[in-house]
Amino acid sequence: MTVPSSADLAAALKTLIAQRDALEAEILDLLEILKAQGNVGMTAPLVGADGFPRADVDVYTVRHTRAEVIRKRNDAKALTDRIESELHELHRVAQLERTTTIPTPQAQNESAAAAAPIPGAADHGDDAGLATLAPMARIDAVAPESPASAAGLVTGDLLLRVGRLTAVDTAPTMGGLGALGAYVQQHKNRPLAVVVRRAGPSHCTLQLTPKEWDGRGLLGCHIVPTDA
């Protein structure tokens, strides 16, 4: 059986995300229908105090629309679960593909840095929840005396989660790493929990505060896609 390449998986992932986006757009349209029906939403009663159906709304339309919203929300959740699974598989295959290439001296240095412990970081070991997260990006360089350096980030770290963001939120159809940049800007001078993978299955959580410093940007590190 032919194993899909990372390019094939990325294309399939893009299709899944587009399907989920379309579903979410349809859900918004359905919620607009409920809004037009007296803003009944998903929970307002459709029976009056006298026990009869309300005369000020189209009860059939509301019930049918609510059922469609529930169905599409379930479909969207199933797609989100599948997207997360496919992201994990994409990362696994990409790693296998990279092992077939001869590492450069720079890559070897980054690998050595990746094996080093993070001072003061919380080690989560083989936490099952974190193990399912695919990396959203890789730290390509860290400037001395920057917020990223103060947090304990080093070259080669794989970013699994920044605040609430995961690889799902930074997929190409969601804005890519630009979504991460916008999120960091929104959290200027506010601490963010950052989960990184550095060596093996272990994960560490750091506290990173985006802020102005003597260098460029709010973090002071260069972030690239994992396949860069």
Automatic annotation (TrEMBL):
**Span of domain Nas2 N-terminal:** 13-91
Top-level taxon: Eukaryota
Alphabetical UniProt keywords: Chaperone, Coiled coil
Give start-end positions of Low complexity composition bias.
112-126
Which InterPro entries does this UniProt record tie to the protein?
Answer: Nas2_N, PDZ_sf, PSMD9
Which residues does the annotated region (Disordered) include? 100-126
Gene Ontology BP terms? proteasome regulatory particle assembly
Polar residues bias located where? 100-111
Gene Ontology CC annotation, any one: cytoplasm
Pfam short name (any one): Nas2_N
Query: Where do the TM regions start and end?
Result: none
Q: Which residues form a coiled coil?
A: 6-33
UniProt entry tagged with the keyword Chaperone: yes
Record protein name field: Probable 26S proteasome regulatory subunit p27
Q: What is the lineage of its organism?
A: Eukaryota, Fungi, Fungi incertae sedis, Chytridiomycota, Chytridiomycota incertae sedis
